[in-house]
Specification:
The protein is α/β, with parallel strands linked by helices. The chain is built from twelve helices and 17 strands. The structure holds 6-aminohexanamide.
Length: 375
């Protein structure tokens, strides 16, 4: 498939839909690198498989895997899962994958961004990232989805959420970080997002919860749950290291209005009661050019890193006292979807969670019957 280089998605009538809109399938990658995943990635592969199994109750799943891991992944994954060979540098499909777009007549296109392992040589997590950079393009090729080339701009899908009605939610901590697009100021970044994602208004939270891992991806702290409504992390425990950011995100979101002029209704979702850290049993190989993960490191464990599916929501579980409460709160927000918890401590040890390892491909629905006649 040819990249679209001369036009911008917004000019062509394409925009980023919300995660809660109809989906065609979920994309994932298979974990294997020993300097991110402990014990040769075997525990992580089990956890990824559990996530795949939970998703496949609701939707089709495609998993990209290296040639070396193909047989192992094929053996571990259920037979109805499509396994395709895709090289990558790690397994964060959310961030290395394309941003899928739709238009009013139900067509699907995508934007392929620049990727530099969450900060490049400034503060990226590993080097090199050349195979990750190609994943978005390969996904579009496999699905025959026309793809806009935006590789001049660094962006990960974990750093943005769309409400599908013209509003984009992000954080300054990430998008204005020195390792992303240092030549551009906030206004220029906003214009690029509007042109590439077809949005009208960008809502800027100040901070995310992980300044070092992803420089504050929004998908750990807040998301849209339906038009006009968002959810965010919350704790009453002042000793929790994430207490300040949880309060700040809640207060900022509660004062925001979306592109349609609605004051956003904000739902609170608890954090794990006990802060999760890397225990001494979690020995992760140290390698040059990869961020070191060591005993005592605080993990970015948030229940908000859930994935919304057609008819379901897949939620991280940690074996924490608050696991059930999180499921209850999320079920109340999504009474029309089945909420399923999956134990994902092994994924959190690698620095992310269910939302970060998955990427939804929208189905694309015809919204305007008269679209073809007028275009
Ligand atoms: O989307 C996310 N929040 C990604 C987490 C990636 C972490 C890489 N170690």
């Amino acid at each position: 498939m040819q990249d679209i280089k001369d036009k911008m998605p917004a000019e062509d009538g394409f925009y980023m839909p919300a995660e809660f809109e109809p989906q065609k399938q979920i994309w994932m990658l298979w974990p294997e690198r020993p300097d991110v995943w402990r014990d040769g990635a075997r525990p992580a592969q089990k956890a990824f498989t559990a996530v795949v199994e939970a998703i496949s109750r609701f939707e089709l799943v495609t998993v990209g895997v290296s040639k070396e891991q193909y047989e192992n992944a094929r053996r571990q994954l259920p037979k109805e899962i499509r396994v395709v060979e895709i090289s990558s540098d790690d397994a964060w499909m959310r961030d290395v994958g394309p941003t899928f777009l739709v238009n009013e007549s139900g067509e699907v296109r995508a934007v392929h961004w620049g990727f530099n392992a969450w900060g490049g040589i400034t503060d990226g997590l590993y080097y090199p990232w050349d195979q990750d950079q190609l994943v978005g393009k390969k996904v579009c090729e496999i699905e025959r989805i026309p793809c806009y080339d935006a590789t001049d701009f660094v962006l990960e899908n974990g750093s943005i959420h769309s409400d599908g009605e013209g509003t984009l939610l992000t954080t300054k901590m990430c998008l204005l970080s020195a390792g992303r697009n240092p030549g551009l100021d906030q206004g220029q970044i906003e214009n690029k997002l509007k042109a590439c994602l077809g949005v009208k208004k960008v809502l800027w939270l100040t901070n995310g919860m992980d300044p070092n891992e992803t420089n504050g991806h929004v998908d750990d702290v807040a998301c849209f749950v339906r038009p006009g409504e968002a959810a965010c992390i919350w704790t009453e425990d002042e000793t929790n290291p994430f207490y300040p950011v949880a309060r700040e995100v809640y207060e900022e979101l509660s004062l925001m209005t979306d592109a349609m002029g609605r004051r956003i209704k904000v739902h609170k979702i608890c954090l794990p009661k006990k802060v999760i850290t890397l225990g001494e049993e979690v020995q992760i190989e140290t390698k040059e050019h990869t961020l070191e993960r060591k005993e005592g490191d605080v993990c970015i464990a948030s229940y908000l890193n859930f994935l919304i599916l057609n008819g379901g929501v897949i939620v991280p579980q940690y074996g924490d006292e608050n696991d059930q409460l999180a499921l209850k709160q999320i079920s109340e927000i999504f009474p029309e979807r089945e909420v399923v918890g999956v134990y994902t401590r092994e994924i959190v040890y690698g620095g992310g969670n269910i939302h970060c390892i998955t990427l939804q491909q929208p189905r694309g629905i015809k919204r305007r019957m008269d679209y073809e006649e007028n275009n």
